[in-house]
Amino acid sequence: MKTQRRLDKPGRQRPQQGTDLRPNGNRPTWRDLRRGLALLDIPRDRTLLAILAATITLGSALALAAVSAWLIMRAFAMPPVLDLTVAVVAVRALGISRGVFRYLDRLATHDIALRGTVAARTTLYRRLATGNPRTALAARRGQLLARTGEDIDTLGETVVRVLIPVAVALLLALIAVGGLALISPLAAAILAIALLLSGTVAPALAARAATIREHAADTHRGEHRDATMAVLDHAAELRVTGQLRPALDRAARALRHTDTSIDRAATTTAVASATVPLAIAASVIGSLLIGLELYGNGAIALTSLGILVLLPLAAFEATSALPEAAIHALRARNASHRLLGLLDDAGTGDVAPVASSAPAEGLELRGIQHGWTTPLAPPLDATWPPGSRILGTGSSGTGKTTLLLTLTGLIPPLAGSMEPGWAGAREQSLFLAEDAHIFATTVRDNLLLARGDATDADLLAACEAVGLGEWLATLPDGLGTVLEGGEEALSGGQRRRLLLARAVLSPAPVLLLDEPSEHLDAASAVRVLDALLDRGSGLMDAQRTVIVASHLAPTVEPDEWVRLG
Ligand SMILES: Nc1ncnc2c1ncn2[C@@H]1O[C@H](COP(=O)(O)OP(=O)(O)OP(=O)(O)O)[C@@H](O)[C@H]1O
């Protein structure tokens, strides 16, 4: 009995949510985060500037607290007003410098983060483009988007949310403790301990709570959802086989575990949240008691007593950002782990990109078996000299696209070999995927992708050859017309023809086209297929090898049929 739905095509792995385990099962580590941060290429000098600006920002708050305390206490003694003016001006200056330096700090940190994400994205794109093509082909589109989008953003934010705040908290703690030590070393020691506790215990607890929550979301909530869906989808069968009660119990148990985990996470979060105010209270009360005693003995002035009490309040501003930093560090560690999975899978990026001017050598297949995990067809032996016209047919899912990807050298075959080899195949061929991208730019730029040095006359001739001449004549700016929204600006048939024009323009000696007639009306579809398979049609140079995958039957006879399923 089928109790679980499988939505993916067989062979494709569903990624886990949250704490993403790599396919080989290993878990994210802090080393992953270090390697991930290296991708950001963080410049040392800019980072130091950002830390300086952020420290001055919070340092201004600290100094503001000290000067205000002094001012309050001094004003209490009602001195001549001129005694207070310097302090009053200092309070204003510190208030302004705080705002100014916060702005500079934001500019500097965001600059580092944004440059970092650009660097990481460039590395990832380059690796995907030039590394093992199977990595990008096997990943689902959503997965790639998440890695290149969200995960790299999370990694970039680590600069703003973790690295700079931790460095600033450390610096500020040193300054505050040092400043307080000038008045009372004992009060400074208490402040140091309180800062250490709130800077380590609270972040550790916050991170622990986040891990518990994530684990609950990954496992128990997933179990609950699966068990509930099984009951909802198969209640009748489960009742007949006596499995309904155990299935309901399973769902209830998973829900209980989810609730327990969430409660545990909430308790841990509550303790983490209480740690910082408790540390502040301990430090302030300690300072007050020490200060009162010192003041009573005449060892310090009233103004120093004020500073002793108010300074610790401001000293915790930097540490209070650390629990959030710890949670983000965990998130960035997981993102880094997923990214590195993709990068490592893609390899070192030393596979040559497709060069389209290689001479045609033809193809010689010896026992090729194509497939992702298991062979999709019996071994294929063939000799296709330059200029061959080959048609791969078969119903949906029989492996036509996979065969083309294999012959282009984009995914390795499960068995067999090919002349001119896989790198050679990549160099001499152009694969035109069914869903090849149309960019939201001009018609010209969309065509120049296939051959950068083509003239407007070449582009117009290619459009004419694929039946886009009339359409092009109606466009306001002809080749210069921008396709707003990319493929949304085109009908399905126009899109196919534009892709076909790319194939016509491309100088690659071997062309592999996946369903080139899709979305065309029935008569045009067969006409296009015939033109591709007929060497004399003039659509493609007679010396180019054209391999087409299609579920349609042409009216001309190709040089060879490859029948799949
Ligand atoms: N990226 C992938 N990763 C793993 N398996 C895949 C992948 N793409 C396709 N497959 C599997 O390979 C098999 C053949 O798929 P393929 O897309 O080659 O068939 P097709 O004949 O081109 O189908 P269609 O006519 O529907 O496009 C299917 O079982 C499919 O699930």
Automatic annotation (TrEMBL):
TM region positions: 48-72, 84-101, 162-183, 189-207, 270-292
Membrane topology: Multi-pass membrane protein
InterPro entries documented for this protein: AAA+_ATPase, ABC1_TM_dom, ABC1_TM_sf, ABC_CydC/D, ABC_transporter-like_ATP-bd, ABC_transporter-like_CS, P-loop_NTPase, Type_1_exporter
Highest taxon of the lineage: Bacteria
Domain ABC transporter span(s) in chain numbering: 358-564
Sequence ranges of Basic and acidic residues compositional bias: 1-11
Primary subcellular site in the record, as a coarse category: membrane
Domain (ABC transmembrane type-1) ranges: 48-331
Keywords: ATP-binding, Cell inner membrane, Cell membrane, Membrane, Nucleotide-binding, Translocase, Transmembrane, Transmembrane helix
PROSITE patterns: ABC_TM1F, ABC_TRANSPORTER_1, ABC_TRANSPORTER_2
Gene3D superfamilies: ABC transporter type 1, transmembrane domain, P-loop containing nucleotide triphosphate hydrolases
Claim: Heme is one of the keywords in the record: no
A molecular-function term among this protein's GO annotations: ATPase-coupled lipid transmembrane transporter activity
Region ranges (Disordered): 1-28
Protein localization: Cell inner membrane
Protein name, as recorded: Thiol reductant ABC exporter subunit CydC
Gene name of this polypeptide: cydC
